[in-house]
Amino acid sequence: METATTEVLVTLLKRLTLMAVPLALGLSVASAPAQAAPAPSVRAAAQAALAAEVIDINLPSYVTNTVFNVSDIGIGVIGKKDGVYNVPGKYDYVLPVDMMSYSRFGWNTTGGWYNGPGYCSAQLRSDDHGVTWRSQDDLGPGVHLIGATTSYAVWAYPC
Question: Which residues of the chain have a pLDDT value below 70?
Answer without folding.
Answer: 1-56
